[in-house]
Amino acid sequence: xxxxxxxxxxxxxTKNGLAHKxxxxxxxxxxxxxxxxxxxxYTRRNEGSCIWVVKSSxxxxxxxxxxxxxxxxxxxxxxxxxxxxTMPDGAKHI
Amino acid sequence: MNEKNFQEKIEKEQKIEPKDWMPDGYRNHLIRQMSxxxxxxxxxxxxxxxxxxxxxxxxxxxxLLAKVQDEAGHGLYLYSACExxxxxxxxxxQQLHDExxxxxxxxxxxxxxxxxxxxxxxLVDGAAIVNQVSLQRTSYGPYSRAxxxxxxxxxxxxxxxxxxxxxxxxxxxxxxxxxxxxxxRFWWPSIMMFGPQDSESxxxxxxxxxxxxxxxxxxxxxxxxxxxxxxxxxxxxxxPDPDLKxxxxxxxxxxGEMDWDEFWNVVNGNGPxxxxxxxxxxxxxxxxAWVRKAAREYAKKNTIN
Lengths: 94, 305
Ligand SMILES: [Fe+2]
Ligand SMILES: [Fe+2]
Hints:
The complex is a heterodimer of chains A (94) and B (305). Chain A has 94 residues and is α+β, with helices and mostly antiparallel strands. Chain A has helices at 31-42, 67-71, and strands at 6-13, 21-28, 50-55. Chain A has a three-stranded antiparallel sheet with strand order 2-1-3, covered by helices on one side. In chain A, 17% of the residues are buried. The mean pLDDT of chain A is 89. With 305 residues, chain B is mainly alpha-helical. Helix content of chain B is 66%, strand content 2%. Chain B has helices spanning 2-11, 24-43, 45-49, 58-83, 89-97, 115-135, 141-169, 173-191, 204-209, 217-234, 260-270, 274-287, 289-301; strands at residues 245-247, 252-254. Chain B has a two-stranded antiparallel ribbon with strand order 1-2. In chain B, helix 6 packs antiparallel against helix 10. The longest helix of chain B has 29 residues, at 141-169. Chain B is globular. Chains A and B meet through strand 2 and helix 1 of A and helix 4, helix 5, helix 7 and helix 13 of B. Bound molecules: fe (ii) ion (2 copies). Residues 71, 125, 128, 154, 157 of chain B line the site of one fe (ii) ion.
């Protein structure tokens, strides 16, 4: 079996001012090749103004099995949402 | 318990993601289907690549080149998605070379004339679109996302093919005959791209239950035929099926018997180009080995990796 290539995750900013969004991955030997492969694969129709690549092995993900416990601390804090508050009748622009 | 959670998620139309628990059968079915799909995109470049240097105009050449490049991209999106199931791209390519993995039989037919570029774009990409639109709703997240991306790129493929056919159909008598001949050769293989009839398709049970497949082979085939008949009429070409006729009651076109002996013959490796397609892929892969090696060595020596 041949030596395995490094996998890089690709994030693209579609327009200046927007956040980078994950689009997929590429195989490449180094970061320059990763950027060029990402450009050729994911931006053939002007989809990008900036590309980030990062080695897949460097991504840390939460586990979906314990996502309930992991995200639990935010469940009971309704007061973080504006709809929690009662505004006096007639108050405007708030 | 795991199995029950899994099926509940599927019933609720939630996507299964790579790190989620899934039955082995689900994982294996996906690896088989997605790798076959990826290999089809890649092998599918060969019959069209055959005409790039002989395209009749610079415009036609640029379009065909861009189309074939898109197909390479589709192959890569699908390999990426398939790799999330825990199999490497190197293994997937090896399975193709060892003939353990298949690709769509349609690419084992030769492309004899320029009109075949029209027929392939119009019919083969057309059939692929019907299948892929349906697969946008597949239950495995990475596969579904790859399908959404691919579908966005496909409609240009079908339109460029149909444009070639339309141009030739209104050209000289010889050009029209060439277009008709391409339609005659590609029609039946195209409608057989959807696979065996539902009554003969042994694996579709779980695929439907797991929502990997969202519509059956026969539903997809009917959908494609219903869409395509009118398109042939518009450009004055005749679909080579004497039994083809509108069925008012069903609200669909009826069509003739497909030649399944030919289908299985090609699936099992005896089509006109099976050997040539595989040999070419192996050769290209081996010829590129030194490039991959050089890139790895370069990366090791440089701090930029
Ligand atoms: Fe494609
Ligand atoms: Fe295509």
